[in-house]
Amino acid sequence: MLRFLTAGESHGQALVAILEGLPAGLTIDFDGVTNELRRRQGGYGRGRRMTIESDRAQALSGVRYGITTGGPIALNIPNKDWDNWQRTMAVESAPTPETPGVDRAAVTRPRPGHADLAGVVKYGHDDIRNVLERASARETAARVAIGAICRQLLKEVEAEIVSHVASIGPAALADPLSVTFEAARQIPSDSPLHCVDPEIERQMIVAIDQAREAGDTMGGSFEVIARGVPVGLGSHVQWDRKLDGRLAQALMSIPAIKAVGIGRGPGVAALPGSRLHDEILPPTGGGGRPGAIPLTRPTNNAGGLEGGITNGEDLRVSAYMKPIATLMKPLRSVDLTTLEISPAAIERSDVSAVPAAAVVGEAMVAIVLAQALLEKFGGDSLPELLDNWRGFCARTAARFARP
Ligand code: EPS
Q: Is position 264 within any domain?
């Protein structure tokens, strides 16, 4: 079983994560992990915090000479901003006069759309900071580090994951499903919003600029595309083994994501079956990639999943992000100490973070696919896993051999 946990507050000392269940013998490219963390920090519309941090995950265990041992991998991502927050976020005791940093008043005016109100009531806090520090999307840096390692495992079976931003507010691609894996992969890493269409991207920038000027925020949507995913991950036999359900849960757990689609997503409801379902046609010849079903699927409205099982077509998962809850021109709220109407609290924040959420989405898809890969092919070491995978590929190829 591959599992992970994260800990850490947005302005605490560090984010930490433990990943357990990776096979032994996987070479970890830590520069690759840093690169994913850097991608998450980018994107037009992010706030000042991202100019302070240069996230890097230090591995503390489970890896020796760069190769996994099979033991749990512990990762530590220090928060540089901790220097300024030591008084506010002191851990083991209340700050003393010697503790560096500044004092901050308790946060008492919950932001509509944030965990603030329900969180303080649930946990019995007076200071909303006890909730917002952990509810913050900063936690997703830890998930991106874990996801970066999972991607390296997936690479061993030739599976790769990319993403693209499909909309920001009203600026949207007409048909995100027409964006190919290759087109998404070729978006330059320094592109402002990771959109395949420069004209739509320009409109997206305008939408973010207008929101910033108005003290507002803007949501959007992105799509994650995985190519080379082995056939047969997930299962139709039980509700909690269906991979579409597991992907939806993983993506919905990203802060601010309010809807998830597979393949054509909500669009499936508007089409007749004859136009939606992806026909199955004979092989066109030529060598496919290992383990693929060598039949032809002219369309991929199903997004690579049928019956909760991967079918070898590109896996396509989209997610829809609400606008960030921290508004520089705040909505009305109530001060929880006086119960008087009052503008919601303002914390330093982003205007829009959809490209960052897309990178987190890639990480969550990588984690779920790595879990499902290990469930199907097992093995305590990478050679054992790969033997099992190659055996299945050979069996699939033999099954479709022409008599
Ligand atoms: C951050 C995500 C956002 C930023 C945060 C860093 O978190 P939240 O969900 O709380 O809005 O606001 O930066 C700060 C908290 C700050 O002080 O600027 C991230 O993804 O790293």
A: yes
Q: Is residue 173, in this structure, part of any structural domain at all?
A: yes
pTM: 0.97
Ligand 1 contact, 323 CB (< 6 A) = no
Mean pLDDT by 10 residues, the chain (403 residues): 97 98 98 98 91 94 98 97 95 93 95 98 98 97 98 98 98 98 96 97 98 97 98 98 98 98 98 98 80 93 98 98 97 98 94 97 99 97 98 94 79
Q: What is the CATH number of the domain that holds 388?
A: 3.60.150.10
**Please, what's the b/e burial string for 25-64 (b: 16 or more CB within 10 A of its CB; e: otherwise)?**
bbebebeebbebbebbbbbbbbeebbeebebbbebeebbe
Q: What are the helix (H) ranges across 305-381?
A: 354-377
Tell me if 96 is assigned to some domain. no
Distance 138 CA to ligand 1 centre (A): 5
Give residue 282's pLDDT: 93
When divided into structural domains, the chain yields a total of 1
Ligand 1 center to 353 CA (angstroms)? 10
Q: Is 9 in the pocket of ligand 1 (CB under 6 A)?
A: no
**Dist. CA 119 → ligand 1 center (Å):** 18
Measured CA distances, 57 to 78, 280, 334, 353, 364 (Å) = 8, 44, 39, 21, 17
The domain of 214 spans 3-91+102-399
- Residue 47: per-residue pLDDT: 87
CB-ligand 1 contact for 326 (6 Å cutoff): yes
Measured in Å, residue 42 CA sits from the centre of ligand 1 at 13
Q: What is the pLDDT of residue 50?
A: 87
Name the amino acid, one letter, at 123.
Y
348 CA to centre of ligand 1 in angstroms: 7
How far, in Å, CA of 158 to CA of 181, rounded? 14
Report the nearest atom of ligand 1 relative to the CA of 325.
11
User: Measuring from atom 8 of ligand 1, which residue has the nearest CA?
Assistant: 136
Check residue 286 and give its pLDDT.
66
